[in-house]
Amino acid sequence: MRIAVGSDHAGYCLKAAIAEAVESWGYEVVDLGSNPGEMGVDYPDYARAVAQAVARGETDRGILICGTGLGVSITANKVPGIRAALCHETYTARMSRSHNNANVLCMGGWVIGVGVATDIAQVWLETPFSGVDRHQRRIDKIHALESEARHGGE
Length: 154
Ligand code: RB5
Fold this sequence. Notes:
By secondary structure, this protein is of the alpha/beta class. It has helices at 12-24, 43-55, 70-76, 90-98, 114-126, 133-150, and strands spanning 2-7, 28-31, 61-66, 84-86, 104-108. Helices cover 47% and strands 16% of the residues.
């Protein structure tokens, strides 16, 4: 499975640690920046790159990290087809896969440490979507809303 990872400067250290862990679990990591020493970069650029890689099928899933996780999750969810989940503990990480079939995980490097973030990433990568009809129906409604927005609907 290919996993795109991205962060701004505030999430860089956590992203580097998570990318290393994800690779050690046997996934292929596609690092879309930022790079060591870059400062003052803009989180929407990295969130866009990771979200588009997932939406276009270039990677199976994505992991995004900024200072709080908020900016990257808000941005990633603007890309059609993306279901980005901001998780700072393992319960919502598991549920975001099982119920929401989240395809992007967002975390905040100022919010949690490497140990907790690594557990979250592992749970999130290993948990399958339940495939239960009612959850799929709700996901379909999310994407119907995207289509309405694209076609200027209310
Ligand atoms: C960067 O200063 C910070 O605002 C950003 O990493 C993120 O927390 C935004 O949501």
